[in-house]
Amino acid sequence: MTHLLIAGKLHPSGLNLLNKADAITFDYVPDIDETSYLKFLPKADGLVIRTQPLTALHIAKAPNLRVVSRHGVGYDAVDYEALKMRNIPLAIVGDVNSRTVAEHAMMLILAASRCLVKSVNALRKGDWAQRNTFEPKEVFGKTLLIIGYGRIGRHLSVLAQAFGIKVLSYDPFLQDDAFDGAIRVKSVAEGLLKADFVSLHIPKANSVVLGAAELDLLPPHAVIINTARGGIIDEAALIRRLKHNKIGAVGLDVLNDEPPKEDNPLFQFDNVIITPHSAGLTEECAERMALVCVQNVLDYFNGKLDPSLVVNGIS
Fold first, then answer.
1. Residue 180: how many CB atoms within 10 A of its CB?
2. Which of 9, 68, 273, 286 could staple 251 via S-S, CB 3.0–4.6 A?
3. Widest distance between CA atoms in the chain
4. Annotated active-site positions, please?
């Protein structure tokens, strides 16, 4: 009998798939606090995990562990090397959330441009005159720089162009013919100098992509969107620009520290929209991710895990 650990809330369809599987038992810990699942690791043969950290120390507590499946596509909270040393494959869900995240990014562009949160909050306080500030801006005819032109970036490009937005993109890993529908720029700096909107769609790296120097290249009306990963924007530099009215608006689905503290300085600005790392968490996408991440584990134990979904090259 194979025993699994499901760490983090899973869509019911994923649980139904587990319940129908032969010779499978499992512990289900819907709490996303990392301490809540640790005591179940010692007897786990396979692990399905949401956003909780999985460190080398955690992995050492799981002597029977043979496969880890992420409920998503990012894995920066997982100790990739520790799994590799144990010859444990790390699987992701692949292209199940790219359209969903692109929709969220487009929504943030529109909401930030139209001062949506500020307008709603003003109206709720009885300030009908907010409508006469003429602060909202149209997106038609503006320029969007997409940093990272993978699946999400390409979907966003299509959405943006439908609104009459000119799309630039920077991605040093692609060939010229991969920029269908977008104009390739040779550097981030080149794109920033031309951009009204910037949207980030890259994995977390060892250094920020938008630091103080890069932010200074943007015009003061620019809108910055990040639905990728925290840590790729210098938040301190961003806050300084916001304080001095040198940025138009910001839409963030990810932060350096998650969940954020209540006194996070970004909360003080009414031209900053922050969502709780939920760009890919629609009902439809949550179901797709649950089914794929569970199926990855089942496929592993049946000897047919799709190698294109394994990120550490172990099958």
1. 9
2. 273
3. 67
4. 229, 258, 277
